[in-house]
Amino acid sequence: ALIAALAFRGLKMGRHGETPLTEVVLFWAFSYLSFVLPEVPHLAAIVSSLFAGVFMALYAAPNLSAIARRHLGFVLKSMAVFCDTLIFLLVGLALVLYVDNIDFKLAGVTILACLAGRVLQVFLLSAIVNRCRPRPLPLRFQAVMAHSGLRGAIAVALAVQMHDEMEDKRKGATVVATTMVTVLFTVFGLGGSTKMLLDRLGVDQGVPPYEEDPAMLRAGACEALLIDPLVDADGDLDAAQRVSRRGHPLLTLISTAAPSSVRAAKEASQPSS
Q1: Nearest-CA neighbor of 23 among 58, 81, 78, 75?
Q2: Is the model's pTM score more than 0.90?
Q3: What is the predicted pLDDT for the residue at 27?
Q4: Distance (Å, whole) CA 21 – CA 35
């Protein structure tokens, strides 16, 4: 993610916004590399992808032009919906294929273990975090978080991988079937009752998404190093400004965010008075 941020800043594509498709493809390639590189030596690719996504959003996405960020949001959303659809198709097919291997006792123990682990993690970690927060996380929010622990794509992928690596295929099939039952219970049981729980606890719904207050942003060394302060964050540059902001010569061979983070980088790049 940090290499991606440095690459986008060095190429300066976000300054003029003339190569949005190239920006989207490069962003996707860097994101996919965060999964492939640890997967080859059999490391935790899922954890790597999680942290890469956080840092790509913080430091790489602000270096994209406004039009590239709009395209990127549509592309990633479409890919996410497509992958979710495939997962649910896999769950449905797996239930039919492994229905004879369902162990309801094991499935019940698994669901209870998932619920207990979720409750312990959410309330314990929230208690620790609340010691450092000026506004503690309300107990009702913690209850919703504990209730809404859905199991899906990651659990299915791990179960199928375990099935392929186990010598006893019957036990492997039982693992897959148990996982599918757990996924269906959490998605339809917990997911379906989340709205009722929100209403019962009086949690506000339909509120606007949270936006960081620019006055609370502090421009640090990371923002100054990784985020280009001249990026076309709002897409309001005219043709002359785009020409004047053309950057690296490689752009002629390649082709033809967050605005708050960009503002923080601009503040960091300005000399202090």
Answers
A1: 75
A2: no
A3: 93
A4: 22
CA 251 to chain centre: 29
Strand, coil or helix: 136: coil
> How many CA atoms lie within 13 Å of 136's alpha carbon, on the beta-carbon side?
11
* Out of 58-62, 146-150, 178-182, least confident range: 146-150
Task: Give CA–CA dist 265/182, Å, rounded.
Answer: 45
Give me the pLDDT at residue 140, please.
92
Q: Does residue 202 come out as left (phi exceeding 0), alpha (psi in the -120 to 50 range) or beta?
A: left
| C-alpha span between 110 and 126 (Å, rounded) | 24
**Average pLDDT of the chain, as a whole number:** 79
Q: Would you say the C-alpha torsion 82, 84, 89, 90 has a positive or negative sign?
A: positive
CA atoms within 13 A on the CB side of 14: 34
Is residue 272 classed as helix, strand or coil in its secondary structure? coil
The DSSP symbol for 63 reads: G
CB 23 within 8 A of CB 232: no
H helix runs in the chain, sequence order? 2-11, 20-39, 45-55, 66-97, 104-130, 139-147, 153-165, 169-184, 191-201, 221-226, 239-244, 251-254, 259-269
pLDDT tens-place string over residues 77-116: 999 889 888 877 877 787 788 888 888 999 999 999 989 9
